[in-house]
Amino acid sequence: MAKTILCACEDVTVEDVRRAFALGHRDVESVKRYTGLGTGPCQGKSCLGLVARELLRLGATPAEAAPFTVRPPLQPTPVGAWASVDPAPLRLDAAVPPEPGPGAPPPAPAPLPARARVVVVGGGIMGLGLAWQLCQRGETDVVVLERGYLTSGASGRNGGGVRAQWSTPTMIRLARRSLELCARFAAEMGINVWFRRGGYLFLARTAAQRERIERNARLQGEMGMRTRVLSPAEAAEVVPELDTARVLAASWNPDDAVVFPWPFLWGYAERARALGAAVHPFTRVTGFEISGRRISAVVTDRGRIACDTVVNAGGAWSREVAALAGVRLPNRPVRHEILVTEPLKPWLGPLVSDLDSGLYFSQSLRGEIVGGMGDPEEPEGLESGSTLRFLARFSRALAACVPVAAGLKVVRQWAGCYDVTPDNNPILGAAGLENFLQLSGFVGHGFMMAPAVTEAMAAWMTGGPPDEIFERFTIRRFERGEVRREDFIIG
Ligand SMILES: Cc1cc2nc3c(=O)[nH]c(=O)nc-3n(C[C@H](O)[C@H](O)[C@H](O)COP(=O)(O)OP(=O)(O)OC[C@H]3O[C@@H](n4cnc5c(N)ncnc54)[C@H](O)[C@@H]3O)c2cc1C
Q: Of 75, 104, 147, 319, whose Cβ has the fewest other Cβ atoms within 10 Å?
């Protein structure tokens, strides 16, 4: 069959773009997210004009056909070159800006219902996963409101790491359940999520980190996991390219995995819609009508919806969303940067995480190395621009960890926001008002927690017995002083 290719790097055809447009992905940024166009080595240089012309032909407005922001670096550039840049004097506020806004709404969006039993604010993996889980349990009168295109928040910007190596029984149980659900997502939802069980390898360079991974590995072993603490030589058997000179030990679980995040959102959204839920992108929640101790309606820039229950799944915007209802959350948004290299033949098995520097990287099924690293100097804020400082810090750390990676070319960097709580644990259940449920505060591990947590939340919301997480992670823990900090955090 003949096919007309628009994006040669990612093999996106004119038919793919037409299908995306027919499904409501009208602006270039949304179509990029849906098809992957422009995410390959040429970064849209060869396809953007063709795609914009095709969208205009299909009926897009000039604003919708505006090109997406080309992400730095402007040209594929080796990690070794960035590693030679001294990050110390580089400023975090000198950022290349992210795309200008959450995308353009379609000219005639589907009307909002006058009322719904459950309104979910935020169409990230939490909101969409919850909608699908509710529908599965017969609660189909659910509306998800997303201010931008689907995948515009952290769920469309993350590293796709899913690991069960945690330090508490609760987190281990949730993550293992998520891994199970991720492994069968493609078959169950009919969409490829590029699930790859290559394991996670945590590197410890100090005695304190070694002790930590040994403690965790003991607990994980007691819970039936295959985690082992490896010597540096054994770690080099898992990743022969590692420079283990300064590694004291590593912790290795072959059952951890990486995924490609975007199709999870499409899968949840499409399946939830098929069961009766409504998902409205480009619909911003601007306020709440409150009567007594309850929210009676959600107000949006496209009208109001009377409701019985509201779920705040606003990710890094959760605090802002809660404030619209007069509820204070202790969450803080903090930028986290990440990048991707040119694709290579498969060579890296696990996701490697260096506990001392915060560096992590993995190879996707598409062959790219995807990696990030937190910055202790990053201030609070809903900032998602990209910095040279990150590029330099990350490249130094990567080249030191795996010297052969110095030759790899970085093709794109971007950023998203972590939704950080004082103890690095989520906030779940009612806060402030009786029918205002929180599903937020997942820091840098919300993607991997979402399948299990949304399952538990939907079961609880539809009358099932409450999982212990709703007591453990209630906002009331801060008043009660029952705060146990989660510190096995990457980045
Ligand atoms: C760079 C990076 C790397 C990461 N790597 C990993 C990883 O490897 N593994 C992992 O498990 N996690 C990772 N995370 C964390 C993970 O991405 C998040 O925890 C998770 O995606 C949170 O999902 P969410 O649905 O709560 O938030 P989001 O995906 O951010 O969704 C919230 C949505 O709410 C919408 N919204 C906000 N305000 C409003 C409003 N007023 N009205 C309507 N909609 C609104 C936003 O547009 C947004 O789409 C990473 C995060 C980042 C930034």
A: 75
Q: Please count the other Cβ atoms lying within 10 Å of the Cβ belonging to residue 44.
A: 23
- Centre of ligand 1 from the C-alpha of residue 385, in Å: 15
Amino acid at 33: R
CA distance 147 to 314: 10
Domains of the chain as residue ranges with CATH:
1-68 (1.10.10.1100)
C-alpha–C-alpha distance, residues 40 and 342, integer Å = 8
pLDDT per residue over 403-437, tens digit each?
999 999 999 999 999 999 999 999 999 999 999 99
Q: How far is the CA of 445 from the centre of ligand 1 (A)?
A: 10
Please give the C-alpha separations between residue 239 and each of 84, 257, 258, in angstroms, as whole numbers. 24, 15, 16
- Give the global pTM: 0.95
Q: Which of 29, 132, 133, 147 most suits a substitution to test ligand 1, by most atoms within 8 Å of the C-beta?
A: 147
Minimum CA distance residue for ligand 1 atom 41: 285
Residue nearest (by alpha carbon) to ligand 1 atom 4: 158
Looking only at Cα atoms, what is the longest distance across the chain?
66
Query: Do 216 and 232 touch, CB atoms closer than 8 A?
Result: no
Q: Cα angle vertex 29, ends 26, 33, to 5°? A: 95
Question: Cβ(175)–Cβ(449) under 8 Å?
Answer: yes
Query: Which amino acid appears at position 393 of this protein?
Result: R
Alpha helices in 42-124 (DSSP H): 48-58, 79-83
Mutate to test the pocket of ligand 1, among 128, 152, 317 (most ligand atoms within 8 A of CB): 317
